[in-house]
Amino acid sequence: MFVSTELANLIEPILLRHRARPDRLVQILREVQEVADFISDETAAWLAERLRISYAQVKSTRDFYAFFYRENRGRYRILFSDNITDRMSGNQALFEHMLKRLRLEPGKVSDDGLVSVDYTSCTGMCDQGPAILVNNRTITRMTPRRVDEICDLVRGKVPLNQWPAEFFIVEDNIHRADMLLGTPHEPGKAVHAAIARGRDGMLGEMKLSNLRGRGGAGFTTAVKWDACRNANGDTRYIVCNADEGEPGTFKDRVLLQSYAGRVFEGMAIAAYVVGASQGFLYLRGEYLYLLPQLEAYLAGMRSAGLLGRSIGGVAGFDFDIEIHLGAGAYVCGEETALIESLEGKAGRPRVRPPFPVTSGYMGQPTVVNNVETLSKVTEIAIHGGAWYEAIGTKQSTGTKILSVSGDCERPGLYEYAFGVRIAQVLEDCGAQEAIAVQISGASGVCLSEREFGRRIAFEDVPTAGSFMIFGKQRDMFEVARNFSHFFAHESCGFCTPCRVGTSLLKNIMDKIADGRGTQYEMNELLRLQQVLKPGSHCGLGQTAGNAVADTVQKFRPAYERRLAETDFVPAFDLDAALARARELTGRDDAAAHLGEEA
Fold it and tell me: What is the DSSP letter of 320?
């Protein structure tokens, strides 16, 4: 397959850097797009030849990820974050303003091939939105003035690296720090403390701590490590899941931006305990801006003897970390989908069992922990499991970082010991007139005012960290509708209940929004939830109807005021759909209409 000599010369160094390994396909495609702006079918076929894999595999992987393009999307590819909190901050008006300034239609490339403007899912900037991505580079705190400035830069064809530096500032916004966010990090201290305890001793401290995963499921970390340690395999791997795509979550962004040492040392300690030699940080594509500083931090750790061979002077403790970037797929937050992506494939969840601890990356025993979990490991290494277990509640030990956004005076990060009441968080962040809180993102639970006395804990309200607040001026139907669109867009399509169910859910919510919904649609919403939850292959589909079901139960008037006062309204007007055909044929007689007489 032919590609131009110029393009081949740009791609060859990328293939060389990745040693033309098919398992690096996602990374190769990402870097190819950076130099070529898009990945055409011809380029995909040429890559297939060079990687010695099928064209179908390259095409399948390219087409799966939202940030890969098969056709030109412009030299400047602008995406507005469309999470509900961005909408609450006015992103739609800014979107329309930019389209008007650039004389564009949504999702269309300008006639000169220079720019396109469209929407994307949550970008992890909910505390400082509205946010956009320009060629996957984050710009926060969008205003009409900033839109105008960006339009001028685009029209002037100013290279992105010459845009004003203040555009790309991403703040931490830490408003309450406890033992993780409030303690200075001493490089190497945690790793050396773990070595001093020994492999068995460190695992013992982990068991004593009762640390549970902070990604949402709450699986006991020590049990996962022990299973991987004892599994049959030639090589073991540690994977840090930094693909926080859940709407309203941004704690991992801050930990990687300002506490990367804790994350990487947590990975090294996990490797020491289970006997792993290779680690991967799977970083969501929206956090591309973090890549250079994270690579620099890893280089510093290697120089300090905290990564590489014989870490801490311990023979056989050989471990290093690579960073792999995602490319816009929420489902890759699921650990087996993430592993598929690490292997260069479309990120579709695997059938389980086997579980990653016995058959993960490349079929080998693999530990997958999220960013916050691995950061907590350093605390246990230094202070011991008993110290850690004494904080929080019996089933939820330690502290939890909450990503607070929405209708409050001080959005940002808040760290509390497990057991904190919802009402306390609302008071601390300045949310005076909240009517609802969405806990753990679109897939979580929606709490009404009467539930604000409940506590953040695995035994009461578990959460991966998202804490979205909605004031009395908000329409909870529109909140749930936004989430239904999110899940329909992010479904990987692997299983029918999720692929079809999320689409039906979105369509019904749109029908109700248009004033054509009836009690029939209300019943269908709840029926779909009963299909999605038990029938879907992975957690995406199983939780896709949660927000709708919760808001129907707790905020039903928001739905009912939109309903038509009939038993049923068709979703599709077939007679209206034939109008164009009547126009083309010049007919408008009764026989050309659908009705009782026709």
Answer: E
Task: Decide: helix, strand or coil at residue 455.
Answer: strand
On whether the CB atoms of residues 522 and 559 are closer than 8 A, the answer is: yes
Residue with tokens 């919904």: 517
- Residue 99 in contact with residue 107, Cβ under 8 Å? no
Do 406 and 466 form a contact (C-beta atoms < 8 A)? no
CA 437 to chain centre: 20
Average predicted confidence (pLDDT) for the chain: 94
Closest CA to 279 of 304, 308, 250, 259: 308
- Token look-up 């579980």 returns 355
Residue 570: HSE in the Cβ half-sphere, 13 Å Cα cutoff? 6
Does pTM surpass 0.85? yes
pLDDT tens for 251-274 read 999 999 999 999 999 999 999 999
Task: With residue 278 as reference, give the H or E element that holds it.
Answer: strand 278-283
Residues 6 or more apart whose Cβ sits within 8 Å of residue 427: none
If residue 192 lies in a helix (H) or strand (E), which one and from where to where?
Answer: helix 189-197
Contact by Cβ (8 Å): 288, 125: no
Q: Is 500 helix (H, G, I), strand (E, B) or coil?
A: helix
What are 198-228's pLDDT values in tens digits?
Answer: 999 999 999 999 999 998 778 999 999 999 9
